[in-house]
Specification:
The chain is of the alpha+beta class. It has 7 helices and 11 strands. Helix content is 41%, strand content 25%. The strands form 3 sheets. Strands 1-8-3-6 form a 4-stranded antiparallel β-sheet.
Length: 211
């Protein structure tokens, strides 16, 4: 989304993280804008029992933690390296200058954030109201659509069963069972390596109930 030349112009620096290393923790003040240069970062919450809920995974070229950065608030989740990663970080003042002088970047960032808000609203409804199979279907369709723009379908999902469980609040056993049911309905296939190949995008949107 933002070229390295532009990032360097506004004094961005690179942080190198090993697998499992924490970039920032929930509650830290969001003083920098972050973009993945290489590797994969997850933003997650942890309860007192150590159970994890993943807000999202971010790969090369993707930014994360934007809302608290713009509102000058603490991060609502921790950022952890899923694998060895490099992350660009740029201060608030410098990033504001970047946006003021680069309208295209500003516009594209607005589109990205709008897309994520739509996803958050959709998943919040799923978590509150829908069963495991429906919840998992919504997440897979979003991930496939988000990561497969411009590619021909069917498309392969790279996340593990455990990662899908962490993003939906489901137990991994429930995710495995739901995937088998979706496979029986021919909505997906499992390749030789165990990856999910999604085949179905024709689910119609449901209208809200009338009084």
């Amino acid at each position: 989304m933002i070229s390295e030349a532009v990032l360097k112009k506004y004094h961005a620096t690179v942080v190198v993280l090993n697998k499992g290393e924490i970039l920032f923790q929930e509650g830290d003040l969001a003083g920098f804008f972050h973009i993945v240069k290489s590797g994969k970062i997850k933003m997650a919450n942890y309860n007192t029992d150590g159970r994890e809920f993943v807000q999202g995974y971010f790969t090369r070229g993707e930014s994360f933690g934007e809302p608290p950065f713009f509102s000058r608030q603490p991060f609502p989740a921790s950022a952890v390296a899923v694998e060895k990663s490099e992350v660009w970080k740029i201060s608030y003042d410098e990033f504001m200058k970047l946006l003021e002088r680069n309208f295209k970047v500003h516009f594209e960032l607005t589109q990205v954030l709008s897309d994520r808000l739509m996803y958050k609203a959709k998943m919040l409804s799923e978590l509150a109201m829908e069963e495991a199979e429906h919840r998992l279907t919504t997440l897979i369709e979003y991930l496939i659509a988000h990561n497969g723009k411009g590619k021909k379908s069917p498309l392969k999902l790279t996340l593990t069963r455990q990662q899908l469980a962490d993003m939906t609040g489901l137990r991994v056993e429930t995710v495995i069972r739901s995937i088998k049911l979706l496979e029986q309905k021919q909505l997906l296939e499992i390749d030789e390596s165990g990856k999910i190949i999604w085949k179905h995008f024709s689910r119609k949107k449901q209208n809200p109930p009338t009084e």
